[in-house]
Every structure is written in C-alpha cells, then in structure tokens.
User: Fold FadR family transcriptional regulator from Kribbella turkmenica.
Amino acid sequence: MKNYELVLHRVEADLAAGRLRIGERLPGERVLAEQLGISRPSVREAVRVLEAMGVVRTATGSGPEAGAVIVAEPVSPLTAVLRLHLATNHLPMNDVVQTRILLESWAAREAAGRQVDSGELKLADDLLDQMDAPDLSPEEFHLLDAEFHVALSGLAGNVLIAAVMASLRSAIHGYVLAAVPNLTDWEATTVGLRSEHRAIVKAIRAGTPDDAAELVTAHIRGFYQAARLNTAP
Amino acid sequence: MKNYELVLHRVEADLAAGRLRIGERLPGERVLAEQLGISRPSVREAVRVLEAMGVVRTATGSGPEAGAVIVAEPVSPLTAVLRLHLATNHLPMNDVVQTRILLESWAAREAAGRQVDSGELKLADDLLDQMDAPDLSPEEFHLLDAEFHVALSGLAGNVLIAAVMASLRSAIHGYVLAAVPNLTDWEATTVGLRSEHRAIVKAIRAGTPDDAAELVTAHIRGFYQAARLNTAP
DNA sequence: GGGGGTCATGTGGTCGGACCACAGCATAGC
DNA sequence: GCTATGCTGTGGTCCGACCACATGACCCCC
Assistant:
C-alpha cells in the first residue's frame, strides 16, 4: 500500500463514519503527516487526488475558508474523467451523444410525469429568454444552452443523473464549439434550437411525458447530425 | 495556475493531439519537471491525479512496463468518485438505484433489439452457470452477479454506459453486502435472482426488447426493495 | 477610549536534494 | 556459451527550507 493511499482511506472512512462532514476542514497537511507517520509530500499527493475527486477544496491563507475544506462537487471530477478519456480517443463521441439522449429524454419524461411546479421551470424560462438575444456568439449561446439542458435534467430530481449530465455537457463543450463551422447556417440553426427548447418546456409544463421525451430526443439527435459530431473527433 | 496543472494540461493536450497514445510512456518525472521548469514534487502531484483518473499506470523498475504508461481505464476513477460522494451522504442511494435501472433496462432493450449473436451471450451464460453453484457466499454471489450485469450492459455496445454501470456496481458493492442481513431468506432470494437472470438472457436472445427491459427493471427494483436499500445508508 | 496600521501566525504552494527499492540489461567472468 | 554481478534508470519517500497569502491580534497614535 502506497503512503498516500493511507490518507485516502483515512478520509473516506472518516466521511463514511460521519467524523468528517461537508464544510468542515481537514487537519493541516503537517498534522496529517505526523498522525499517519508519513511525510508531507505524501499527504499532499493524497489531498491533490481528493481535490481532483471534488471532495475537498484547498485555499491558502488563514480563516475558515482557508485550508482543505470538505465539499461535495461531483461534476468537476466527472467532467475531468470524461474529457481525458475523450482525449485518448477510446471513448467514441457517438457513445457520449447516445448517453445524453438516454439521460435527458428520461429526465424530461420524469419531469413531465411528476408535474413540476412552475417555480422550478422559471430558471429554464429565464435561460431561454436570454438565448433570444440576437447577437450571441456561438460560445455564449452554447453555454446558455448547456445550462438550460442541465437545468432540465435537474427537474427529474436525481442528483447522480444531473451530475453526469452536467459533466457530459462540460466535457464536450470544446468539441461542440469546434464543430460549429460544420453547420451550413448558424443563424437558422439557432432559430430551430430555440423553438425546440420552447416546445420541450411546453410539453413538460403540459405534463405529457412521451411528448417531452420525444422532443428532447429529436432535439439532441438533430443537432449532432447537423454538426456532424456523431463520429470520433 | 498551479504548477501541477501545467502537467495536466500538457498531458491532455498531448493526448488530444495524438502525441501520446495508449501504451506509450510519459517522460520521466525528472525530465518532465525540467521541461516545464517546475519541481519534481509538482510533477508527481499531477501524475497522481492522472493515475486517479485512470489515464496512466505507474510502476517502478525498468523495462517497458515500468514508468508512467498511458492507459484508458475509466471504471476505477468513476468508481472512486461515486464511492467518495456516497460516503459524504450527499448522493442518495435511491438515485443510484434509479440510475442503474435506467441504464440497465436501456442496455437490455438495445441488446435485444440488435439481435446479439450467441457468442457474445456466452460470457453471460457462463457466469449464470457459476452462480448455480450451491455453496456460494453472499460476497461471491454478488461479485458474479455484478459481473453478469456489467456484461449485459456491455452488450449494448456503448463504452460510456458500460463504464458507468461497472463503476456503479463497484461503488455500491459494499453497501449491498451490508444489506444482506435485511433479507428475510437469503436462499430463497438467490433462487429468485437466478431465475430472473435466466429470463433476462432468454428475452435478449429471443429479441424481445420490451420484455427484456421490463424484466431487468423488475429484477433490480425487486432486489433493492427486498434488501431495503432504497434509502440513504 | 477608539481607530488604523503593523506584525505574528498558520495555512497551502514550491523547491532542491537526498536516499531507497525495484526491474531490466550490459558486461565481466567462468 | 552461460551465468552472475553490478550498473542504470525508474518511481517512492523523506527532509528541510522558503514563499505567498489571509487572518487576527497587537500596538501605537490620535
């Protein structure tokens, strides 16, 4: 067993046993090193891994915000894993798109089925209004688009699926932007996407699960076909 | 920008550009440190993160297997992220179960729909035969069970979904085992699970997607209800 | 007594150097 | 020709030091 794994196991056990809770601080690196009988560099390697896993956030200085604070941020590590494995070309873009369709159509169906109240839909509406601005760059448009889709996924009330969706969108953001030139007509594309978004929200509000799921599926599939993103980048 | 992030960006860029391929070796830590003008500890922190992300595998010694070799192992990092966030209690077990049902029923539907050839089903059959052994411990049984479910998910041909499924199973393995005492009758449970497994494979082989998906959904939901695992641990 | 500036303190961030264990390979010796 | 030994390069670990930063206590001046 490598020394830095001692720290990982210790922290995981402390979390599982409730000895460490979100918002609390990890012991200082020097203290942790002495407690476990290992060196500070070994502790640091473990803290780095925990940081990459979205379990701690480190900051310098003093005060309650400094040090290694326990957080629960699952999106960034999932994003990192996906991005890196997309980069190795051993994760076909087509599989990512297929997963998006599966998760998002499910979320839309769930949201429509459980009759979300209009307060939850307000964020989505606001985002759609922002996307109506006439002079958005592709980058700005897609950031709002991603936020909208993530918000929709959140309506289903499943933390894990929402996190995976958010990380999927973040991971492929660069690839999507790079594919914009493949579109024959950017303006026409945005008009279509905008009206499809409105239709999806309308279906969820109306409480018609099958319609909502179908609209989402067609929406995603249509864009990736237009952008020719269904093959490995 | 922290120094170890220099290494991460450098490696990700090299992967994306094809300058680093799977099976190749990362430059030595000392070399990397000098190339980027940073210290070896900083490089080591980055390598640790890459290792945790399933992108490199490190080993001591010399020869082609030693050093930091580029690999593509998405399951272990996903497992680690899920396990850690389950430990923080900010990821409800119910959401994980719901995700399992969604992914696995989809995979079963896909597999049944595309008429997998019997060679691909042989692994699943073999695992089911092994699970018929009369004196399996709960631990052994669930390991085989997990392997069976992961194999099924693989039949759909989506690398990402198969990886997520495998990591879900690994992450909850401990929780499942801990819940075995909740079952009123372990023997009767295994008999039921075994026959359900056979029925699922039969439906896939018969090419009846709706049946396959429905059987998988009932199978998973039934077990978690019996084991009372639908609430946070 | 109050207010503002200054320094002590503790945090992570970084560095250089050193030594160890390990695996493979070149080479010397038989 | 074969074996055994040492050389080489790899990651693994440690030590000690210094830096940048944010805070809070302290002190001086008004």
Summary: The radius of gyration of chain B is 21 Å. Chain B has two domains: 3-70, 75-226. Chain B has a mean pLDDT of 94.
